[in-house]
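Milestone 3.1: sequence recovery, worked example.
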């Protein structure tokens, strides 16, 4: 996971290698499901439900929810919510990184959001057009990150979002690039996942990209590769993808002692 330093307040007692921005961005982009906290419309008490998650181009979480669900009714009455994203793994669950976002939910019919959500969750095509289903974009306000012992950060969620110079232009760039990579560069995508992300081999596909990285998917698995530096246009994207491919091939040759 490539890091890029951001000028944020840091606790000098924390490990020098703890980069809350890079870790927060990774968790935000890589996790497929999270715990959604809403305020019960009838009682005002908080409730928590499980929901599938994808992200908009700038990193804001996007949800596809049924109007029949409790959390959708709650969001209609009060858009304030929270979203917990955890990496999980073996051993003590509290030893693994997790990110909580405080946000406000906004109903949206943006076709880019629909496309990106279905790329991350292709099985949702079975019900996405049911009349009671709708997309919400969560507008992040604050982030609370716990990366393990002595690795915590609490601050503005904007630290881990990806500013877009021209959203429409970037959406067009992303759609074309993802289609091109999936159609013509399947071997390179598999190389990225297997060598750079230490994932099992297989027919990995690009599910989306944003200024800070490339998202990959294989069945229920996800992988995330960060761009360094971030990209905003096609020229920078081509350069970044080539750099990643060269890095992966060099690492593979080294592992094979060639």
């Amino acid at each position: 996971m490539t890091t890029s330093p951001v000028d944020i307040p840091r606790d000098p007692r924390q490990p020098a290698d703890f980069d809350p921005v890079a870790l927060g961005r990774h968790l935000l982009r890589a996790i497929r499901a999270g715990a959604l906290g809403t305020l019960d419309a009838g009682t005002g008490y908080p409730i928590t439900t499980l929901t599938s998650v994808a992200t908009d181009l700038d990193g804001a979480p996007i949800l596809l929810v049924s109007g029949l669900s409790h959390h959708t009714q709650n969001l209609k009455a009060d858009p304030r919510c929270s979203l917990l994203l955890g990496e999980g793994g073996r051993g003590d669950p509290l030893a693994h990184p997790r990110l909580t976002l405080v946000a406000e939910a906004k109903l949206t019919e943006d076709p880019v959001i629909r496309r990106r959500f279905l790329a991350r969750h292709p099985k949702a095509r079975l019900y996405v057009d049911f009349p009671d289903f709708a997309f919400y974009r969560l507008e992040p306000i604050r982030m609370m990150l716990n990366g393990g012992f002595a690795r915590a950060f609490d601050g503005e969620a904007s630290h881990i979002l990806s500013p877009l110079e021209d959203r429409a232009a970037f959406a067009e760039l992303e759609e074309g690039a993802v289609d091109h990579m999936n159609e013509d560069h399947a071997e390179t995508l598999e190389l990225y996942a297997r060598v750079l992300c230490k994932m099992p081999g297989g027919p990995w596909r690009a599910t989306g990209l944003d200024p800070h990285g490339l998202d990959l998917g294989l069945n229920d698995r996800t992988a995330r590769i960060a761009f360094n530096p971030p990209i905003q246009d096609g020229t920078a994207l081509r350069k970044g993808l080539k750099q990643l491919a060269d890095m992966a091939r060099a690492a593979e040759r080294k592992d094979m002692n060639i």
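Residues 1-5 have pLDDT under 50 and may be disordered. The chain is about 30% helix and 30% strand.
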